[in-house]
Amino acid sequence: MMYSVTKRQNPLDREADSKYYASAEYGEEIDVNALAKEISKSCTLTPADSTNFNSVTATVSVTITKAVPVITVVPKASALTYGQTLSESTLSGGMSDMAGAFRWKDGYKMPTFVSDSGRTEYIIVFYPADSVNYDNATCKTVVKVNQAENAPNMPANSMTADHNATIVGAVSLPEGWIWSSGDAGKTLKAGETVTATAIFNLHNKGNYKNETVQVSITRPAHILVAIPQKDADCTENGNTAYWKCALCDRYFSDENGTTEIPTGSWILPATGHTFYKEPVAYVQPDAQKNGSVTYQCQVCDETISIEIPATTIIVPDNLEQLTDVDMSVSGWTWIN
Q1: Which residues make Cβ contacts (< 8 Å) with residue 127, sequence separation at least 6?
Q2: Cα dist from 25 to 32, 192, 216, whole Å
Q3: Rounded Cα distance, 27 and 40, in Å
Q4: d(Cα 2, Cα 96) in Å, to the nearest integer?
């Protein structure tokens, strides 16, 4: 607002002489309940010392800002079950100095039983009915979160293991579940059932009432195929009688599959030929032609022939001593 004076003292300075004091009045009353906005009003400045000062009238801008409601009673939140969001918790009993509604600020959030129940404060927003002249107000409250009933992907109470699984730890569980450390190493015998504990083990464990399951695990019995005894002969291996499981390729010495045996332990080595001492055929060598001797196996009648070299030995012209002749080619040696 503008005004003029003929003296140096500020006519609005309350500490100055009272004769320089001035009062300002609006030409019309300002409605504080009007819409929040900037408005223009006529204002007249009337000095206390009207002898030395003149009144001044000017137009001034007045900004009416939004008021903030007063929350007198913070609303209570209904309990949630883990897995629900804040938006599913009902707010009730809240009060303010004006009409309006209470709502969660972050209704998408999902409080947990383990970390948040009765501890974490969440923001509540009060939305006044007259949103033109009043801003939103906020307050905070906690929410009780109950455990959900069952952890997700719970395994069945009984299952059939793969026949090749020999310990509990080799049996697959649904995602998020593990075998207890005390049960993972338990032996699974073919045709028998054991009981083991499965435990929920994801990041959100503790938020469910049921996070363990007692599981009965059955390993299927062996399907045994009998391999009959076969005697070894002169050239081929034989075998003792044994049984092979069609499911796991394990081998057993008995038809009940109680005694497992190593691979190949049933092999009976080939015996080899047993020949008569007397040959069945003989061809006499001569000076120019090789001979042979033939023997026959006493078991399988197979024959074998051994060559006898010719008796003629070619002596080099430059031979100095007879003993220098190489007799090894004919199977003979010199005797001194």
Answers
A1: 100, 101, 102, 103, 136
A2: 16, 101, 91
A3: 11
A4: 42
Q: In which residue are the tokens 């044994």 written? A: 242
User: Pairing mode, if any, of strands 145-146 and 80-81?
Assistant: parallel
Q: Which two structure tokens, joined as six digits, stand for 179?
A: 């075998």
CA distance 160 to 193: 9
Q: What is the mean pLDDT of the chain?
A: 85
How many CA atoms does the CB half-sphere of 97 hold within 13 Å? 10
Q: CA 197 to CA 178: how far, in whole Å?
A: 9
Dist. CA 329–CA 307, nearest whole Å: 12
Q: How many Cβ atoms from other residues are within 10 Å of residue 167's Cβ?
A: 17
Q: Which helix (H) or strand (E) holds 252?
A: strand 251-252
CA distance 131 to 8: 47
β-strand pairing of 158-160 with 212-218 = parallel
At 19-34, the pLDDT tens digits run 444 455 545 555 555 5
Tokens of residue 138, six digits? 């906020």
Instruction: Using the Cα atoms of residue 197, residue 201, residue 204 and residue 206 in order, give the sign of their dihedral.
Output: positive
Q: Give phi and psi for 48, each to the nearest 5.
A: -70, -35
pLDDT tens profile 129-177 = 999 999 999 999 999 999 999 999 999 999 999 999 999 999 999 999 9
CB atoms within 10 A of CB 15: 7
| Residues paired with residue 261 on neighbouring β-strands, in sequence order | 251
Structure tokens that stand for 258 in this block: 């109680």
What pTM did the predictor assign? 0.61
| Residues forming beta bridges with residue 145, ordered by sequence position | 80
Q: Which two tokens stand for residue 107?
A: 């209704």
